[in-house]
Amino acid sequence: MTSRRTLLGAAGVAAAGGALALSGCSSGGGGASPELGAMAAKNAKDSISFQIWDAAQAPAMRQIIDAFHEDYPGIEVTMSIAAYASYFERLRIQATGDDLPDVFWINGPNFELYASHGLLQDLSDLEGFDPKNYPENLIALYTYDAKPCAIPKDFDTIGLWYNRELLHRAGVDAPDGSWSWQQYRDASEQVTRKLRSDRIWGNPGGIETQAYIYPLALQAGGFIVSEDKRTSGYDDPGTLEAFDFLRGMIDDGIAPDVRYTTENPPQDLFSDGRAALMTSGNWQAAVLQDSVVKEQIDAAPLIHGKQEGNVIHGIGYAMSAHGTHKPAASAFLSFLGSEKAARIQGAAGAANPAFIGTNDSFFDALPGFDLELFVDAAETALPYPVSQNTSAWNQLEELLLPKIVGGPGDVAETAKDLADRMDGVLADES
Amino acid sequence: MSHETAAAAPRRRRRRADGWWPLVFLGPLLIGIAVFYFWPILATVINSFTVFGPFGGRTFNGLENYAQLLQDSFISRAVLNTLIYTVIVLCGIPLAVCIASLLNQKGLRFARFYQVLFFLPAVSMPVAVSLVWRMIFNKEFGLVNWALSLVGIDGPYWVTAPWWSLLAISIVGLWSSLPLAIIILGAGLRGIPAELYEAAQLDGAGTVRQFFSVTVPLLTPSIFFLSIITAINGFQLFDLLFAMMGQANPAMADTQSLVYLFYSEAFRQNNQGYASVIALLILAIIGAFTLLQFRLQRRWVHYE
């Protein structure tokens, strides 16, 4: 009898919880007004919370907060940093408890989940925010239901980083931006064979999704998630071609296998001077600036397949739709999206700002590298593949991509397993 | 003691005398147990019939989660992995019996020092321990493969190849379960009366014979307790696996434990409903295994 009453009670709780499900970015709820409302005046007094995940970018964010403070001396901004690995677990708990920070970082894989549940403020009416100031594909990434719900903070595209000296030692010409897959493979092979005794690889292998697998799959005519977000592209012939290309280099001993790169991450191999080529983003510039190979490296445009397939992604600044400090949060968010804040960010070398026309601030901060090509790539780059619950299938990728690329097992068979599981996750999305 | 004829009255009176006092004393504990143990278990059962929204809210979906469990190929592999791990870690108990009796030898010099040494794994942080072992098991620079190379063996990828990874984790699990076992067995050993050894000596039993005929039988209650605790800990394998395997490990799909699957479903994929089913499966397996052990103990555990 007791258990029955408890069950009924629980059902009541469940029903009450179900009512929490909302739809559409900024449709409000939770007591606070869904409207953005007026922005705080310069003499307003308030305090707001701001949450980010990258400690390396914290100094730049602090400089931005200080600059904001000059304009709004009465508004305190408290910044908290949560490590990326647990950032979105934490954000989800905060959202469930209706306790999101006033302003916070969001990324492509997680944007739609929050926007579709009405947790992100619609920024259409935000004073000082003009979508035209940012690359179109980034604005598209952060638009839900035709409403912009986050401001692009920075962007990254993929290029081909290379180590001049290692290539020279192996008798390979530096990449000129026109390389095909075959040329990339041949160059890698030559370096690996010539410099094997020094434990140096042509390319460092690995299974980086954004920097390696996504671009190659797209270049081969494959896809990651279909446009209607209903089907996985992991069993598409194009995607399989990319997998075969990667597995082929491992099987032929040209690139290190996945068991090896799990213990020796590609990025470490490259920055230690143990790999000559690496496809990666402009975020590497700040990291490689402090590496031992700093003087020997540069970047070139990405290798080319059947079609263009660069991938663009960038972090976004978002505001809680349920916040109770919206005027102050609007003022801060508007400043974060301004040219001034973008230049502070660029000059700190933190990331390439998304605000159009501020790239030079980032280039000047990291003078050793040709970073312009990443900006050029942004024009034709495809949006980062996402769906409503991206992080659910990202985890499946983490589990099965190593097996697809590195074995054991058949490439197509494991890829089919990944595609089926991902289809299951996509089917659960509403 | 209590015969019906003896006294209905005194018994009733005694009951009244106890009154609510037992409840007052037990209450705080019972409330704690109810809130932190019984309610979560009940909630897990309820959740297992539901599907969760990403930000709270549940909807009833009947037995769908259970149906999914039967089809999931990860589950059968995780059950197998967890069992293998548990069995290997259980092998640490005989080892602990030997070490404990060596440490408890009369007149052993530096006995305290050895005890501290053997207890060290228990006071080290599991994650730190895992990271150190990960280095020890490194394919290229690890201590283990270096030692193997001395005898001409090309060591495997311990942490990133299927099966080897499970073996490596089991070895570390066994190693870190030793300290507690040695402490408990040490206490058990000190409880064995010295007369028994004297009597055995008089009967002409050597050290080995004494070990198997006196020490081991009288230690069986401690060994039984340990095997229950170790098995339960074994079925809950998570942190070691998580820290030693790291991110994007090609062997992960073949090395996942049940609790790891539970974690990834509940917190990474936000499938709390399905995760509840996995939690109940873990509960059922631990329950069945413990029951089996209690059944079997009658055959080999000697209580004085």
TrEMBL record, chain A:
Protein's cellular compartments: Cell envelope
Top-rank taxon: Bacteria
InterPro entries: Bact_solute-bd_prot1, SBP, TAT_signal
Sorted UniProt keywords: Signal, Transport
Coiled-coil zones: none
Matching Gene3D superfamilies: Periplasmic binding protein-like II
Leader peptide range in chain numbering: 1-21
Similarity annotation: Belongs to the bacterial solute-binding protein 1 family.
This protein's name: Sugar ABC transporter substrate-binding protein
Species the sequence originates in: Brachybacterium halotolerans
UniProtKB/TrEMBL annotation, chain B:
Membrane-crossing segments per the record: 20-39, 83-104, 116-136, 163-189, 210-235, 273-292
Keyword Cell inner membrane: no
Record keywords: Cell membrane, Membrane, Transmembrane, Transmembrane helix, Transport
Keyword Transport: yes
Protein's cellular compartments: Cell membrane
Membrane topology label: Multi-pass membrane protein
One Pfam short name: BPD_transp_1
The ABC transmembrane type-1 domain, residue ranges: 74-293
Signal peptide start and end residues: none
SUPFAM superfamilies tied to this protein: MetI-like
Family to which this protein belongs: Belongs to the binding-protein-dependent transport system permease family.
PANTHER family noted in UniProt: ABC TRANSPORTER PERMEASE PROTEIN, DIACETYLCHITOBIOSE UPTAKE SYSTEM PERMEASE PROTEIN NGCF
Protein name: Sugar ABC transporter permease
